[in-house]
Structures are given as structure tokens and as C-alpha cells.
Amino acid sequence: MKSISLFPIFFLVVFCLQGQSKKSPDLQIGAHYWAVDFVDPGGLLSFDMPLLGKQKGQSIRYLMVNFDLGFYHKFRSHFGYNFTPGLAFRTIKIPTGRIIDVKLGIGYQRSQFDAEVYEVTADNMLIKSNDTGQNLVMPYVMFRFGKDWRFTHKKPFGWNIGVGAYGRLFVNHHVVPGLFLSGGVNYYLSSKPKAYED
């Protein structure tokens, strides 16, 4: 499973370097509260960058690449850590800065049991394990609404709220579905969207 987690990290580096080759990359960094199954607390750090963008009338349409680093805590069950790359289809309205997007992705999750776990050794000894968990594949889809303050406040910030669904795919091909809520703020490295024509 290590190869699954390292593969998207390679693409994260490639896309970030591609963005830095421009004078003002339209890279967005976000910090979000991530509520798995609506009640379990967590956090999410996101990186979004347009691959393609076009202004059409009073809206800008994007195809974006995104990478999320997240965690959550399901009390009396487990901790979850995940890395999920994906694509987003985004529309920004002018001049209100209203954002609507859909994110699709699949990534890697590590679940760490939040309980004492014991293992039997080859010598039939019972020992306590401090590093017991599972490696999972995690697909997801998310719908988001927000604001880009570069249009309304001339500031490189914005906010968004979203709802989504995910699945945790175990090694035995058993899938555990779930829902989540998210909300947070974005910081933009560029003063205005790349596809925006003044």
C-alpha cells in the first residue's frame, strides 16, 4: 500500500513546480474543518490549482487539480489519516465571486485503532500492539459553495462550505460508505483568477 500513497505525492510535486514556473500561480491553499459522518471532528489542508480555465460571459469555468491532507477522530473507534488527490469542476460568478464546484478523487487512508490491541506472537505470547491499523483506498465526491473575495473585497481570501460522500475500501474489497461536512477558508497566491479578463 505504500506505493499507493507515494504515487500521488509525485504528482503533487510536479503540479506545484509547474505553477511556480509562472510569475503568479493561481494556487489556492485552504484550511477546513472536516466533520466525518457529520459528527466526528477532523481537519483538512487543501491545495487547488487550475489546469484549464475560460471566462464565458459573467462566469469563469475551471478544471482544477486538488490534493487534500486530512485527519479525523471517530471516538472509541479509530483515527483516520488520508491523502486524496482529485479533480474539481468549478464555476465562479462575476462580479459576486460566488463559487460552485464538484470535486472527485481517490486516495489513501491509514486508520489507526483508538483502543488497546493485543497480538499473539509466533511463540504464543500475548503482547500489546501500539501501531495497529489498516491501509485503505478512499474514493470521494464533494459539492461545495463559497465566495472568492478577490472580486468583492480585493483580498486574496475566500471561504467555502461543502457536503460529500466517501468510501473506505478494505483489502478484502469490503466498502464502508460515509458522509461528511466541510467548511473553511482559502488563501490565493494570485491577486486575480488567471482566466479573468478585466
How would you portray this structure in words?
By secondary structure, this protein is mainly beta. It has a single domain, classed as Porin, CATH 2.40.160.20. The strands form 2 sheets. The chain has an 8-stranded antiparallel barrel with strand order 1-2-3-4-5-8-9-10. The chain is elongated, with a radius of gyration of 19 Å.
Provide a concise account of the structure shown.
The protein is mainly β and 198 residues long. The chain has two helices and ten strands; from the N terminus they run αββββββββαββ.
Helix and strand topology:
Elements: H1 2-20, E1 28-36, E2 42-56, E3 59-74, E4 78-93, E5 98-113, E6 117-120, E7 126-129, E8 133-148, H2 149-152, E9 157-169, E10 175-188
Antiparallel strand pairs: 1-2, 1-10, 2-3, 3-4, 4-5, 5-8, 6-7, 8-9, 9-10
Key attributes of the depicted protein:
mainly beta; Porin; eight-stranded antiparallel β-barrel; two-stranded antiparallel sheet; disordered N terminus
Q: What is the approximate shape?
A: elongated
In CATH's first tier, which class applies? Mainly Beta
How would a textbook summarize the main sheet?
Answer: 8 strands, antiparallel, barrel
Low-confidence stretches: 1-7
As a percent range, the share of strand residues is over 45%
The number of helical segments is: 2
Task: Provide the helix percentage.
Answer: 10-25%
Number of domains: 1
SSE-based structural type: mainly beta
Radius of gyration, in Å, reads: 19 Å
Report mean pLDDT, rounded to a whole number.
80
User: How many distinct beta strands?
Assistant: 10
At CATH level 3, the topology is Porin
